[in-house]
Specification:
This protein has about 250 residues and is α/β, with parallel strands linked by helices. It has helices at about 1-10, 15-25, 40-45, 60-70, 115-130, 210-220; strands at about 30-35, 50-55, 85-90, 100-105, 130-140, 150, 160-165, 165-180, 180-195, 200-210, 225-230, 240-245. Helices cover about 25% and strands about 35% of the residues. It is globular and about 55 Å long.
C-alpha cells in the first residue's frame, strides 16, 4: 500500500529531473540518490545511462524500484539495464557504504524530514564521508509553503487519483499549516473498491523549517568547502525548490 500512495503523491513530479541529469552529467558516476523511494529520480538517471545507488529507509519502496529496474512488472517503468541501479536500505542519518561518490543528491525536501538540526547534522556528516574530494552534495528544500486549511472553507488542490486492481485510490491535500519549527502537510487518503468498500484515513507529513542560507551555514559547519545554488521552479501542483549545492574539500 505504501508504494501506491508514494507513487500517487510524488511519482508524477518531473520539474526537477533536468537539474539532476545535468549534475550527473557534470560530476559523473555513481550517483547517490538519498530518499530514492520507488525510483522517480533513480530510474530517470539510469535511463540516461548513469549508475545510481538508491538509498531509502523503506524496503517496500526499494523493492518496487528494483522490480521496475528489472522490468518484472510490465505496467511499471523500465530501464535498459538492471545493473545500473543498486538499492540500499538505510537511514539517511546513519548510513555506512563502502563506495565514495562524486555526486549525492537529495531531491524533494527529503532533508526537511530528518527531525531538525541534529538530524541534518548527522546526515551532512554521513554525506561528507561518502563524497570523493571535490564531490558535490545537492539538496532541494522548500523555504516557504502557501498555507491553507479546508476546514476554513478555502480552495484547495484537486485530489490525486489512480485505479489499481479495481480499487480507486484518492489522495486529497486538505491543509498546509505552520507550526513551531516547520510545517504540517495534511492529506485525506481514501480508497473505494468495486464492491463499494471504502476506507478513509488522515496522513500527516511534517517538514522542518529551513532556508538555503541556514543550510549553507550547516554545511560549512559540517566541513563542506564551497557553495552554489540552483532553482527548480514551481508548477501548478508542486512548490518550487531552492537547491543548495555543497562541495566536499
Amino acid at each position: 500500500m505504501s508504494v501506491i500512495w508514494h507513487d500517487l503523491e510524488c511519482g508524477a513530479y518531473a520539474e526537477d529531473l533536468p537539474l539532476w541529469r545535468a549534475l550527473a552529467a557534470e560530476h559523473g558516476d555513481p550517483v547517490l540518490d538519498v530518499g530514492a523511494g520507488t525510483g522517480r529520480v533513480t530510474l530517470d538517471l539510469a535511463r540516461a545511462g548513469h549508475r545510481v545507488i538508491a538509498l531509502d529507509r523503506d524496503p517496500e519502496l526499494l523493492d518496487a524500484l528494483a522490480a521496475r529496474a528489472s522490468g518484472r512488472n510490465p505496467d511499471m517503468d523500465r530501464v535498459s539495464s538492471q545493473a545500473l541501479i543498486t538499492t540500499v536500505v538505510a537511514d539517511a542519518r546513519e548510513f555506512d557504504l563502502a563506495e565514495r561518490y562524486p555526486l549525492c543528491i537529495v531531491p524533494m525536501q527529503t532533508i526537511q524530514l530528518l527531525g531538525g538540526p541534529d538530524g541534518r547534522a548527522a546526515f551532512l556528516g554521513c554525506a561528507l564521508r561518502h563524497l570523493r574530494p571535490g564531490g558535490a552534495l545537492a539538496i532541494a528544500i522548500a523555504e516557504a509553503l502557501d498555507l491553507y486549511d479546508a476546514t476554513d472553507g478555502v480552495h484547495y488542490p484537486l485530489p490525486d487519483i489512480r485505479e489499481v486492481d479495481g480499487i480507486v485510490y484518492s489522495s486529497q491535500p486538505i491543509a498546509v499549516r505552520a507550526e513551531r519549527g516547520g510545517f504540517v502537510l495534511e492529506r485525506r487518503r481514501e480508497t473505494v473498491a468495486v464492491a463499494g468498500e471504502r476506507t478513509v484515513e488522515r496522513d500527516l507529513i511534517r517538514l522542518d523549517r529551513l532556508t538555503a542560507r541556514g543550510l549553507e551555514r550547516e554545511g560549512r559547519a559540517a566541513g563542506f568547502a564551497r557553495v552554489q545554488r540552483a532553482r527548480v521552479r514551481e508548477t501548478a501542483d508542486y512548490v518550487g525548490s531552492e537547491v543548495v549545492i555543497l562541495r566536499a574539500p
